[in-house]
Amino acid sequence: MASLSGHIARLFTFWLVAAFAAVLAASPLLAAPYAAIVIDARSGEVFYSENADTRLHPASLTKMMTLYIAFEEIERGNISLDSMVTITKHAAAQPPSRLGLRAGQKIALRFLIRAAAIKSANDAATAIGEFISGDEAAFAKRMTRTAKALGMGNTTFKNANGLTAQGHLSTARDMTILGRHLFYDFPQYYNLFSRRSVDAGMATVNNTNRRFLDAYEGADGIKTGYTVPAGFNLTASAERGGKRLIATIFGGKSTADRNAKMMKLLDLGFGKAPRNAPVNPPQPPAYQGGDEMLVADADLPEVSDGAGKTVRASMEITTSPRPAARPGSAAPAAAAPEETVVAAAEAVDAMQSGIEGALAAALGAEAPTAPATDPALDAQATELAAAAAPAAALAVEGVELASAATLPAGETLPDQEALAAALTQDLPPADAPEIIPFQVVSAAGTASRPQKRNAPIYDDAAAPAEGDAEPEVVISVSTSGDRHWGINLGSYGSSYDAERALLKLQLVESATLNGSLRKVMPRSGGFDATFVGLTQDQADLACRRLQARAISCFTMGP
Questions:
Q1: Does the model's pTM come out above 0.85?
Q2: What Rg value do the Cα atoms of the chain yield, rounded?
Q3: Rounded to the nearest 5°, which phi and psi values hold at 401?
Q4: Sorting pLDDT into bands at 50, 70 and 90, what band is 234?
Q5: What distance in Å separates the CA atoms of residue 453 and residue 55, rounded to the nearest whole number?
Q6: Residue 128 CB burial class (10 angstroms; 0-12, 13-18, ≥19)
Q7: % helix / strand / coil in the chain, to the nearest 5?
Q8: How far apart are CA 532 and CA 360, in angstroms?
Q9: Helix H or strand E segment including 38
Q10: Residue 407's CB: how many other CB atoms inside 10 A?
Q11: Which helix (H) or strand (E) holds 378?
Q12: What is the pLDDT of residue 514?
């Protein structure tokens, strides 16, 4: 009887506490503070804001920054989606929402990213931070530095998942800025936030934002958040009729209340947004003093429980030693600095002219006269083209390229006009390609046959007969693999401006443009900035990605 009375008393106490908690949650005096903002994603114009700069608890909106930094690291090549992450005890012990990771478990980074973005898994977000920075505290410092670089001046982070912590605060405006950067800086990953469900390796997980995505026309992201101090938070993006908005709400009373407020906020924004607003994407983060986040403190303590310590050295070049001479060879006489620079510039100009002439011949157009450009930029263009070109199927032995500074006395490199003429001499028609045996042309213009191989590339019968008066000369054989497409970025006032724009975009969009060649084409009234040497698929993909960054371009075909 006594045990029955005790059970009834405990049950009564439980219901009393539950009822009291419900009353507290519904009380306006104790409700989480409300904040809201909606902006035009294209221009950044603010259409409505309320308490937008009040520092509040962001909850799981924090994971947008965790994912932003993960995307940064992937694009830099420091990690990949297939990198295997060892789960620490700290990550495995995070409270729900969870993927269910276990200490010591190894899992691909792509699954952690999916779980953090779609399910809002706290253990997955913590594991990502520890994998990148060694421990969560170091990663939180990086998150705050990145926030400052993005213009999120009222944000400080203390963890990777958004659980309530002292000093872990942000604002509705800052989270909207972060959502806009995710959309413009990583368009290749943004579609992840619109998926209703996804395979996270250990299980198929559902999107915490699926109700809003299904209910509001044009909605395609981004992230939800909830804790008791924060309330129900949401950063959302939607597109209708060419207009794209990004909005954030802090302090919703429930999921339904938050979603209803967000719909009204976006409706207001679409009503005010102009159809043809200027597209001004946010600038990529400008890290003070360079990219400080690539350098880790050397005295950081080692991390236990399976997490590795990440130390990245500064790669700044302080000296450029001259290569040592080969054993047994006499050291060449030192050339005057000015003569060496001039000779190197002439060599680069000759090679660049040859590349442009060959490409123009492949495209069926007359090779344009290359405008004078900065030799350093030309050298980078030549290096990129050489690195991206497919391995040649044919080779010639015994031929070495040397700068004018190391040529024997009395010999010089062929001038630009002579090399350009040789490049366009006797090329076969584009519709009937013909492979002609290689010949090596010396600076004096005489032909010499390559040394014989044990397993020759060509049969001797294919070689020109001895004594031919005018042997055919081929400088290159096409190995383009249908890389006859390109991208035009528009016209610029000077060749320098065009080359500068090409170099900047090739660095920013290296994933698709690294195998292309920058080419400035003089036109009446300006200079066209183009990338050439791409396949049709590569050109289409690169142009789409550039357009996602609000950079106008169009593809060029053969």
A1: no
A2: 31
A3: -95, 135
A4: very high
A5: 74
A6: buried
A7: 40, 15, 45
A8: 10
A9: strand 35-40
A10: 15
A11: helix 375-388
A12: 76
In this structure, are strands 440-441 and 243-252 parallel, antiparallel, or unpaired? unpaired
8: pLDDT confidence band, cut at 50, 70 and 90?
A: low
Enumerate helices (H) and strands (E) in the chain, giving the number of each.
16, 15
Phi, psi of 250, rounded to the nearest 5 degrees: -110, 145
Quote the CA–CA distance of 271 and 418 in Å, as a whole number.
64
Answer for the pair 268, 47: CB distance below 8 angstroms, yes or no: yes
202-215 burial by CB neighbour count: b if 16+ within 10 A, else e? beebebbbeebbee
In tens, the pLDDT along 273-287 reads 999 999 999 988 877
Helix 172-185 × helix 63-76 angle, to 10°: 30
Classified as helix, coil or strand, 60 is helix
Per-residue pLDDT for 212 more than 70? yes
- Contact between 270 and 243 under an 8 Å Cβ cutoff? The reply is yes
CB atoms within 10 A of CB 113: 24
Cα separation, 163 vs 95, whole angstroms: 9
CB 109 within 8 A of CB 80: yes
Q: Is the peptide bond before 222 cis (omega within 30 degrees of 0)?
A: yes
| H-run or E-run covering 52 | none
Residue with structure tokens 């963890």? 159
What's the Cα-to-Cα distance from 93 to each of 98, 320, 390, 469, rounded to whole Å?
Answer: 9, 50, 49, 83
Active-site residue numbers? 60, 63, 120
Three-state DSSP class for residue 107: strand
Do the beta carbons of residue 132 and residue 70 sit within 8 Å?
yes
Summarize pLDDT for 433-458 with one digit per residue, the tens: 444 444 444 444 444 444 444 434 33
Residue type, 483: R
